Amino acid sequence: MDRIVYDRMAAHDTTHWWYRARREILAAYLTREAHLPPGARILEIGCGTGHNLAMLRGFGTVEAIEIDPLAREIASERLGRPVGAAPLPGLPGVPRGAFDLIAVLDVVEHIEDDVAALAAMRACLAPGGKLLITVPAHPWMWSAHDVVNHHYRRYTKASLDTAIRAAGLRPAKRGYFNSLLFPLAAAARVAGRLMGRDDSDDSPPPPAVNALFEGIFRLERHLVGRIPMPPGVSIITLAVPDAQGAGGAASGSGTSSSRGSAR
């Protein structure tokens, strides 16, 4: 990603409505859907500045990977121990068969060979382990935000399912989220194109608007995973190894990378 994306993440990951509400939604989703064992071993790949690590620690012992040096330094301080730097798609040096949960939150879209990356993650799961994936949805929403974040793609449900199954996994649970604000986000994208203003700035809006958006988005913590959500800005999937799946995939190019927001 461009340097400015990491700088904005470091500056705003504790205050921006998207980061704050999404952490609550993911925590509620994991509580309801993941059924992790006590003391679960958890790995976040592409952890960025480590803004999800405290939330994940509520479910077990957390390890993390981030390839950007400055973001990794911040994440290591937050984690209290060094964060690794193993790149995707191969994840060299990451123990195989070890993790009860791997969280890859708005990262897979940064990897050119997403199938190889997902296959490597599958190999790192312990028996009964699960992979929590979030990605940006709707290719038609492609914008300057995707360019500055070095995305290779935005996903449809079908294209994400295809990649997951090709990697020897199956989607145990899958749906949209960030749905309540989707009409506003979609209208902003369309209006920006019509007016020739495709803006990559994801700094927080004014405080009152930031608080309003956070409150609306946070409502989804009661909904995601419980009911089928209407189209949203993002897709969330809980995937598990498919005993009859394809297994590994050939390695390709790309690196593990965290992101700004999936918007």
Low-confidence stretches: 246-263
N-end to C-end Cα span: 15 Å
The shape is globular
**Element pattern in H and E:** HHEHEHEHEHHEHHE
Report on this structure.
This protein has 263 residues and is of the alpha/beta class. It has 9 helices and 6 strands. Helix 5 links the parallel strand 3 (99-105) and strand 4. The relative contact order is 0.22. Mean pLDDT is 89; it is low at 246-263.
Topology:
Elements: H1 3-12, H2 17-33, E1 40-45, H3 53-57, E2 60-65, H4 69-79, E3 99-105, H5 114-124, E4 125-136, H6 144-148, H7 157-166, E5 169-177, H8 182-194, H9 207-218, E6 234-241
Parallel strand pairs: 1-2, 1-3, 3-4
Antiparallel strand pairs: 4-6, 5-6
Helix pairs in contact: 2-9
Summarize the structure.
By secondary structure, the protein is of the alpha/beta class. Helices cover 36% and strands 18% of the residues.
Question: What would the keywords be for this entry?
Answer:
263 residues; six-stranded mixed sheet; globular; disordered C terminus
